[in-house]
Amino acid sequence: MEEDRLEIVGPQRMCGELLVQGSKNAALPMLAAMLLAEGVYILHHCPQITDVDHMLELLMDAGCLVHREGHMLIVDTRGAERCRLSGSGAGKMRAGVTLLGSMLGRMHEVEIPYPGGCTIGRRPIDLHLKGLEQLGAVFEHREHALAGYAKDLRGADIVLDFPSVGATENILLAATLAKGRTVIHGAAREPEITSLAGFLRKMGAHIEGEGTAEIRVEGVERLHAAEYIVPSDRIVAGTYLLGAVMTGGEVRLLHVPTQHLGVLPRILAQLGAEIALWEEQDEISLKMERRIHPIPYLATAPFPDFPTDLQSALMAALAMASGPSFLEEKIFEARFQVVPELRKMGARIYEEDSLAVIEGEARLRGAQVEARELRGGAALIMAALAAEGKTVLGGMEFVKRGYEDIQGDLKKLGIVLH
Fold first, then answer.
1. What is the rounded distance in angstroms from the CA atom of residue 100 to the CA atom of residue 410?
2. Collapsing DSSP states into helix, strand and coil, what is residue 94?
3. Where are the beta strands (DSSP E) in 84-163?
4. N or C, fewer C-beta in 10 Å, the chain?
5. In the 8-state DSSP scheme, what is residue 109?
6. Can you say whether residue 16 is alpha, beta or left, with left for phi > 0 and alpha for psi between -120 and 50 degrees?
């Protein structure tokens, strides 16, 4: 098995228990937040994924010292003085843009390469910049970099036209050290926002209302280092739950805050799965003993509705359903890159603009397919488990951006890899 390729011979049934890895989308803004204050931070349950590695590159470029012991990450920011970052980390992932808020908050100046990441369409940062400008920042677009200055950040009433997670995070980071009160109206409600607010509160920030559409921040003069546990990744959990649906499996996922799953348990039940939630233990179990039911219509939307990051895996499952389904992608305009690859496996899917029609009734077969982005790659792996014959998946580098050890996880869930 080559490092950038994965071979799976199906069909195989997913069965067993799994402790779910730490959340990519929660860990990355926490790492950015560390630049708000000098000190030694400790982050537990931090996923060992390439996106975290790229963010750590940027922190080291700023002057931080980094030490990892398994899933414990120690970051010393006392030597972080460089506000012009030239490392390649930002160009490799989207989350590097969250350094704008933290570096403007502490250093009042920042320059980062333009953010990169998945090829899932245009992901403009205008909401980030507009919000930070209302706090007093000024930005300059250079040839390959974005520069920002903020002599004096001051609190403001900020209205987001769309509940952007990244923009909410950036404004939240900068507002913690701004003078006065900031209110973010139309804020994102995702669990990752709640986790970031919890981390910032441990650093000494005054924040209220996270998890609602209105977040209030009273700026403080200084923050301090903190220790925190990264919650489990709700998207990784959702991927494996949908994989169990596709394979007629039975799984129990541990250390998953069930309130982070939003409507997902209801959608899984709509597909025909038996679902049990243990909120106090942070566990969810799924058993699938029937044919997958179609879903007449579902659109992706911000939390707590169905997440765009699970749309590809749901599409793969619906390809096997007992009738037609309709999926509408309302977050990103290029989220259907997985469709041609699923068609190679026998799926009957037709897409136009933001709408996909999945005919269902497909008997998936193994094929040579290519991951073109992170979540589509994971969806193809789940499809390969349910398909007849051998699937060879290329582009595993995309999957490793968000899945710490997907091969190891699959083995723990009873899958035999070749």
1. 37
2. helix
3. 109-113, 138-141, 145-149, 157-159
4. C
5. E
6. left
Amino acid letter for position 115:
P
Q: Give per-residue pLDDT as tens, 17-73.
A: 999 999 999 999 999 999 999 999 999 999 999 999 999 999 999 999 999 999 999
Long-range contacts formed by 273-281: CB under 8 A, 24+ apart: 273/241, 273/244, 273/245, 281/254
Give the pLDDT confidence of 100-137 residue by residue, as tens digits: 999 999 999 999 887 654 443 445 788 999 999 999 99
What pairing do the DSSP bridges indicate for beta strands 181-185 and 157-159?
parallel
Indicate which residues carry an active-site annotation: 118
The span from the CA of 136 to the CA of 175, in Å, is 10
Report how far residue 418's alpha carbon sits from residue 397's, in angstroms, rounded to the nearest whole number.
18
Residues 6+ apart with CB under 8 A from 387: 10, 11, 345, 346, 364, 365, 366, 367
pLDDT for the residue numbered 87: 60
**pLDDT tens, position by position, 210-269:** 999 999 999 999 999 999 999 999 999 999 999 999 999 999 999 999 999 999 999 999
Strand partners, 36: none
The CA distances from residue 402 to 35, 110, 255, 398, 413, in Å, are 23, 27, 18, 8, 19
HSE-CB at 117 with a 13 A cutoff on CA atoms is 18
Do 291 and 322 contact (CB within 8 A), yes or no? Answer: yes
Residue 214 amino acid letter = E
Instruction: Please name the residue ranges forming H helices in 40-98.
Output: 50-62, 89-92
Would you list the DSSP string of 173-228?
A: HHHTTSBSEEEEET----HHHHHHHHHHHHTT-EEE-TTSSEEEEE--S-----EE
Q: What is the DSSP letter of 365?
A: B
Rounded Cα gap, residues 174 and 132, in angstroms? 7
In tens, the pLDDT along 266-313 reads 999 999 999 999 999 999 999 999 999 999 999 999 999 999 999 999
